[in-house]
Amino acid sequence: MIKEFIKCSVCGSETPNGPFGTIGDTWFCSVECFGILENEKDVQAANETQVGGNHYKDQTIQPWDYIISNKLGFLEGNIVKYVSRWRNKGGVEDLKKAEHYLKKLIETEEKC
After folding, report:
1. pTM of the model
2. For the chain, where are the E strands, in sequence order?
3. Same domain, 107 and 61
4. Into how many domains does the chain fold?
5. Any idea what the Cα angle at residue 76 is, between residues 105 and 64, rounded to 5°?
6. Residue 77's domain spans which residues?
7. Upper half-sphere CA count for residue 18 (Cβ side, 13 Å)
8. What is the pLDDT of residues 30-59, one digit of tens each?
């Protein structure tokens, strides 16, 4: 019997006699890789939709992706959020919100 090796679309490992499972054209070798694939789909789906407007839709980097990637805290994250959207949503009011969070961040850091 000739074994056919299929490359996992998630981790790249080759599995004999076909994949553990498939979704469309995507092959995965294990339950773990399927879980990773599903999590990636969930993240992509969240970035493809927006609740309450479209003020982040055309941005190259979604503010929450930037916040998560840089491990920013709550106060820093809100500063990024409001500064990123002020032109497309709340105008100067969003800049004032960012300023408010910045003042709180400064207060907090000065107490340390």
Report:
1. 0.58
2. 5-7, 14-16, 21-23, 26-28
3. yes
4. 2
5. 165
6. 56-112
7. 3
8. 767 666 666 666 555 677 776 777 777 777
